[in-house]
Amino acid sequence: MVVGEVASPVDLLVIGAGPGGYAAALRAARLGRDVTLVERGAIGGTCLNVGCIPSKTLIEVADAYALTGRVGSWGIDATSTVDMGRVQAHLVGVVSDLTSGVSRLLADAGVTVLAGHGRFTRPGRVSVEHDDTVEFLDPRDVIVATGSRPIELPGVPLDGDRVVGSAELLSTDTLPDRLVLVGGGYVGIELGCAFAKLGSEVTIVESEDRVLTTFDARTTRLVERGLRGLGVGLCLGHLAVGTDDHGLVVEQAGGGNSGGRVTLPADRIGVVVGRRPDADSVAMTRSGATLEPSGHVAVDASRRAADGVYAIGDLTPGPALAHKATAEAEVAADAACGLPAAFDPTTIPMVVFGDPQVMTVGLTRDEATDAGMEPAAFRFPLAASGRARTMGDTEGTVTVVADADGTVIGVQAVGAHVAELAGEAALAVETAATVEDLAGTIHAHPTMGETLMEAALGLVGRPIHTR
Length: 467
Fold this sequence. Notes:
23 strands, FAD/NAD(P)-binding domain, 26% strand, 3 domains, Enolase-like, domain 1
């Protein structure tokens, strides 16, 4: 049934209920707006349902399963088995708890939630399609948070069975014997580590000559060493060009001919080459917004894309990260409510939950040098960390970078549990803390946080546990 194009007035409409969308809805409701939230899928979006949360839960499961192989020298003899059906039930439970919590928050805030596919039909008008029904809304303001969608490879189309995306890998209740992942970005690294620990024979295919190409070369070398230590095969400098009965067909990047084609045996192929902004599904250009060549929605500092229209999260330029979307949500909601607001962070933390973990905040020493600064840096080895020793995992380093005035401008870390350093590192960079501030702050012992203090102490010439 189609309700004739008679539109209902709406105060503030949010399209998309992922981390950016639901945060924007909650913020605007608390500022007194009458908020309607439209979502065509599940509350929580990609992150909560098929991305960040289930993947990190699976990583914890894999770490627990693999722990029995590490603790023999500690005096513990243990064995373990994995039941993927029960693992999947655990993942579903974690996701359900979080999405139910978000739904309760929205209900308590008085947000009206509509199930359906929202898209602009013209400036100031949005259609919401649900099953056979179409409803039209005329919102006073709109915040669009439809996120991004996976990039697909023409030669390796997804079939939902043998060739799948990350969402299908995370929902599997069977462990593939041989898994080939196409893409050496953070998703490929995280899933590769998890499935390798659970017992799959994993190979990662990457068209560049190293994984995690947005990170510095030294970091990626440590990551690649960790992958190989887990038995993960790396097929670098190769393109995925097709499939055959045996697995994934690859050829050397830039080869220009098919003579070098080989097949990597695979029971399952995961295509995880990245994501692109999902602006067309909401017909953003009909709202008056402009798209950049990359497909991102052009916005100003307040996240305004057109008159009365704001865009946040993966739709807009910058890293496609849930915490970026959440931060932008507050800015957009404030701006829509007439409050002064601008999104202008000094840094956005980046974390990869592989083995080892990777964390970067701000500038590396090389980036600072390229920017014309005169940086100084100190790299503290985790082998000198008391906490790392107690956990039995001392591979990696923590690096603090400062400018010529001694202001902390970057922190990079590789190693077990270094993701937990991201908050303090981002605070130091965002507040322009000095190296002396960091070095002079008493950190609890023994903790991983001490490694930041130790690196800062090294940088000011007062190292304790290293030279």
